[in-house]
Amino acid sequence: MRHILSVTVNNQPAVLARISGLFSRRNFNILSLNVGETELPEYSRMTIVVQGNTDTLEQVKKQLYKLIDVIKITELNQSNMIERDMAIIKVNCGKNQRSQVIQAVDVFRGKVVDFSLDTITVEITGDENKINAFIEIMKDFGIKEVVRTGIVALDREMNNNVLTNS
Amino acid sequence: MPIHSGARIFVESLLREKVEVVFGYPGGKVIPLYDELYDAPIKHILVRHEQGAAHAADGYARSTGKVGVCIATSGPGATNLVTGLATAYMDSVPVVAFTGQAPTSLIGTDSFQEIDIRGITLPVTKHNYLVTNVKDLAKTIKEAFYIARTGRPGPVLVDLPVDVLKSHADFMYPQSVNLPGYQPTYEGNYVQIKLAAEAINTSERPVIFAGGGVINSNASEQLTNMAIKGRIPVVTSLMGLGTFPEDHELSLKMLGMHGTIYANYAISEADLIIGIGVRFDDRVTGKLETFAPYAKIIHIDIDPAEVNKNVKVDIPIVGNAKNVLDKLIPLIKTIERKEWLEKIKEWKRRFPLNYEYDDNSIKPQYLIEKLDELCDENTVIVTEVGQNQMWAAQYFHFSKPRSFITSGGLGTMGYGLPASMGVQVGNPDKTVINISGDGSFQMNLQELATISSNRLPVKIIILNNGTLGMVRQWQELFFDERYSSTILENPDFVKLAQAYGIKSLRIDQSNDVEMALKEVLNYNGPVLLDVIIPQDENVFPMVPEGASINEMLELKKKKREKEKQGEVA
């Protein structure tokens, strides 16, 4: 089972090491982890995707809370979150295929960000499934390189997760 | 606001935290700090290895309830603390460690004696710091002590680059801390407490399972009151020894791998377990699937992460044990529980701790029984790890908290000797006895020098069987008596102690035990007693690893098996 946690932490050196170290030490299966500054520069927000049953999830949350640098943990689920993954994909693409690729990009609301004589590079954002589907289609043309951000996600209810500067 | 150097701020901050003694070892990066300590009204105990400093600070903390402090220089000095910090971490002991560090300008360049001690100690400290600006120093020290002693206690490390110690800042020690991510829960939820009371009052076969958290929260009195009021028998973990008087009829002593048979039977047949400040360690539960099969479980603990970590809990109460028990006790009814207590009494009668006395050698159990007879309440037993530790836990009667100091969670050989220094420094009026094995003793024996030069009157008793006894025992029982690398060739411990200027004697006959112990206990100074014990003496009862806790190997069974084998041969 996949669980998505939005974790507010102090924006300080070694905090990422504390969190990733906790996951490896306790043998928690981590699928992706994203960090970035929040609206308040003293805090960062991490989106952590964890694999495990509900008992594991309970331990993950409790162990995270034990870290002094963890301020707040929100568990997100499909119904209450906005989830985005982003990929940049470089596809083999000669002149003859260019229009087909661009068509596919349009359908998926992606963006062409670069092309050369025999490649085209596309940016696409969306949830994980959409990105996976798009990558599947691009495989037909021959993918040269892919980079993905992993999931970033946020609670839908605006006021639920706003930090106060204490 | 006075302007001070970082080193001076360090000393001033320690004084604000009422630190009286520190254990440490100087080195290049902490010379400025040691220069300030030179004139400071803080006692510094110079150990002979940094691991000794960490264990001494730990022993000091466990025995006094105060925060223990240790100091090491950067690089190898800092890494030598790691085992001590891990030991304190596993047993929730409040220790603050200060380490020197390369100057901030050189951090990351692999400069001389530079090591990322913050990175190394991430998994073995409750929290840690690298101070990069002298302006943050006082605030950091305040937080370090606060974090170490509050909530579930634990070790905190503060890494101090040498230029931070040398540069100057305004000094003002903060009155309070601001840590939004750290809000320990001290008061148990009252609804949960009422549920727990109801479960206790309706249970027929309850057992209290008390651990180190009872000691950390000074809740022994409450625990005792609750057990007596509710007529509830008490088992303890290794860390919980001394929380409940072991001579009381409701005491079932320790449970688990080397616990008493009656404790393990009681847990196995209980319909309710009231876990207080325990973490249901695998050495206690044995095979989890068959642990306490008929019992509902109440779990009182300050650390929410301990709830449901190992065993499924029916009624969790997160809070400080003392606060929770204060609210719980008035709700407990006095119920006779005749049938249950009779059953336990019968188990106690049928399956007491036992060993075979021998006139021509010294059985370690006999020695510890004698020691127990000769010691008064003013005694603290500090052990090493292994057979010596288990015999001490089984055969000494602990009736007061903080009277048994041992490395439980990490099982650190070499803990006892340096820890006993810390205990003695923190308790100058108490009789501090280090019960040791010959293997463990040699892991930190350099601290004999510290004991000697500070004239710390520690009594060291080596149960000398010329082997790594507990490993040897496992090899005998589970590895076809293949004694791979467990037989030791030891130095003459008596001469060794004498070389350090420590009084020393050796015995190998039962008849000599009483006189030798009296001599040791009456001697006003450090003394080492080398006790030659049989090599093949084992710790019983024993739950084999991975077995259920009611499947114990006992002395008699073991003997019968041996006889059987003899017949077949």
Structural description of this entry:
The complex is a heterodimer of chains A (166) and B (569). Chain A folds into two domains: 1-75, Alpha-Beta Plaits (2-Layer Sandwich), CATH 3.30.70; 81-153, Alpha-Beta Plaits (2-Layer Sandwich), CATH 3.30.70. The relative contact order of chain A is 0.21. Chain A is an alpha+beta fold. In chain A, the strands form two sheets. In chain A, strands 5, 6, 7, 8 and 9 form a five-stranded antiparallel sheet that branches. Chain A starts with a strand and ends in an 11-residue tail after the last strand. Chain A has helices at 15-25, 54-66, 98-107, 128-139, and strands at 2-10, 29-37, 43-51, 70-76, 81-92, 111-115, 119-126, 143-148, 152-155. Chain B is an alpha/beta fold and 569 residues long. Chain B folds into three domains: 1-168, 3-Layer(aba) Sandwich (Rossmann fold), CATH 3.40.50; 188-349, Rossmann fold, CATH 3.40.50; 362-537, Thiamin diphosphate (ThDP)-binding fold, Pyr/PP domains (Rossmann fold), CATH 3.40.50. In chain B, 38% of the residues lie in helices and 17% in strands. Chain B contains 24 helices and 20 strands. In chain B, α17 (387-395) links the parallel β15 (379-383) and β16 (404-405). In chain B, α3 crosses α18 and α16 crosses α17 (387-395).
